[in-house]
Design brief:
single chain; 140 residues; alpha+beta; three-stranded antiparallel beta sheet; 4 helices; 3 strands; 46% helix; globular
Length: 140
């Protein structure tokens, strides 16, 4: 199964968790550790209010705070690194992982990805706090 098909399957599973008036806004596939896939699902209301839910590869909700924070941090770091390296993202999903992050750093010829990541740490912390505060389930 391709990553696109996998994300579509998880999006279908995630849609069941949308509250009334909420839409699934994004599904971000992350591999915080080798072989451990987490899908960060963002939900949005018309007023811009956002909530989150992380699903495993079976489409079941996760509640492990550390795993979810790790996944959110890696996803955010990859996004910053892609922007800093001017990587075209296109419409196809990509798997955010430490290995992909390393490849972005290795491929960067011009630009200070490390500096960009360092300066983005406060925003990444804010994202992980937002995710925890607006998580659909009780985190362990």
């Amino acid at each position: 199964m391709s990553l696109s098909e996998d994300v579509a399957r998880i999006a279908e599973a995630a849609a069941r968790f949308a509250s009334p008036g909420e839409e699934l806004a994004a599904v971000v596939p992350v591999e915080p550790a080798s072989g451990e896939r987490v899908y960060l699902c963002a939900f949005a209301l018309a007023d811009g209010t956002q909530s989150w839910l992380a699903l495993n590869h079976r489409g079941s909700p996760l509640t492990n705070r550390t795993l979810i924070r790790d996944a959110a941090s890696i996803a955010a770091l990859v996004e910053v690194a892609e922007e800093s390296a001017a990587v075209p993202t296109g419409d196809e999903p990509r798997l955010a992982s430490p290995a992909y992050l390393d490849s972005l750093g290795a491929a960067a010829v011009n630009g200070d990805i490390a500096g960009a990541l360092q300066s983005a740490l406060p925003a990444i912390d804010e994202l992980t706090r937002d995710l925890e505060l607006n998580y659909k389930l009780e985190l362990e």
